[in-house]
Amino acid sequence: MIARSQTETDVVVIGGGVIGLSVAWRSAQQGLRVVIADPNPGQGATHAAAGMLTPIAEAAYAEREIFQLGSESLRRYPGFAAELAAASGLPTGFRQCGTLQVAYDGDDLAVLAETQQLQESFGVAVQQLTARECREAEPMLDPSVRGGLLVGDDGSVDPRLLAAALVRAGEACGARLVRQRVTEILCSPDRATGVRLADGSVVTAGWTVLAAGWQSAGVPGLPSNLAPPVRPVKGQIIRLRTTTAMRAAGLPPGLLRRTVRGLVRGSSVYLVPRESGELVVGATQEELGADTAVTAGGLWELLRDARTLVPGITELEVTDVAAGLRPGTPDNAPVIGPSALPGLLVATGHFRAGVLLAPVTAETVAAFLRTGEPDPIWRAFGGDRFTGRGRSGSQPEGALACG
Asked: Quick one: fold of 1-95+154-230+330-403?
């Protein structure tokens, strides 16, 4: 019989996406011993994300609580990004230049007017722009754009840079990254005690944090009645880059000064410029299960709508295309907080907003792991909301045994 190694730690994080990496970094900062398990950290939904930080532009009916959580996370982002850059010595691509929402035709403009009413009902002040004012704000927009809304506080970050910085900062604080798949959540007998890895080794921990994105519900050893109801939602993006000649001509990076979110004959598209000269165009939203194929149809739709708004993108170089799987839940809101199984905390289901919600998720989870006190901001996001036990940020009574 081959003896397998065993590691003892305070916290083991299952999943090395932006949420898991952020939780690991903040927890290690607070003096906790942390192990992160993921065979390919930062290569899932994080790798395919555009990195928009737009709680206001993303606001939707019946999602007031998500909007409030996103707004709080955006408030924390400047400090989070600055501290991370200092701790890692790496850039994050964080910018806070606002978002311009634009409408291409009259029907799109009517939808945008409804969006403005919704945003103002949330207590958000947005600036309504005429077609001319939109083009003054973003000269590369097509003259056919009918009008828009300017949200000044929104931002963006480069998720690939962010993930690399989180890995380095976490390791600098003592977090250990194990590039292996978790094959089982361990329990003894009615408490989560750690995980088993693909090589058979065991990591025992006081807390196990489930942050495996859309795969969170399928980790072996997780009691079926505690599995968060997450599903994969496919999104495709295109990364473009301005040419040397364009940059020499004085055009802004990615042709734009800020994120542009557009409605084009009822279809949504966004364009996110980077200081590097890159422009990210996305994103499709496809209910196709665990399918990560990049398709001609998906890319064509993105380029069609993006070109309608910003004709100059046809001159840009294509640097990358990618598809990722966002973890969606029935109400589009994340699941954050301790589960009914002692020792198991869930931080998943962030859907379109994983990058945006990283600071507030990481900081509240790390504080709980250190103090045992749940943050009131979790109240609307407990997993028990899907089981009829109500909404709570605290651990439900009646701990469940492992299956």
From this structure: FAD/NAD(P)-binding domain (3.50.50)
Q: Residue ranges of the chain with pLDDT lower than 50? A: 1-3, 389-399
- The 3-state DSSP class for residue 212 equals coil
Q: What is the CA radius of gyration of the chain?
A: 21
Instruction: Give CA–CA dist 210/212, Å, rounded.
Output: 6
Distances (CA, A) of 31 to 24, 96, 168, 342: 11, 31, 16, 21
Residue range 265-294, pLDDT digits in tens:
999 999 999 999 999 999 788 999 999 999
Q: How much is the pTM?
A: 0.93
Instruction: Identify the DSSP state of 228.
Output: -
**Exposure letters 289-323 (e unless 16+ CB within 10 A, then b):** eeeeeebeebbebbbebbbbbbebbeebeeeebbb
Q: Residue 136 in contact with residue 184, Cβ under 8 Å? A: no
Question: Cβ distance 251 to 242 under 8 Å?
Answer: yes
Locate the domains of the chain by residue range.
1-95+154-230+330-403, 99-151+232-328
User: Which run of H or E residues covers position 235?
Assistant: strand 231-241
What's the fold here for domain 99-151+232-328?
D-Amino Acid Oxidase; Chain A, domain 2 (3.30.9)
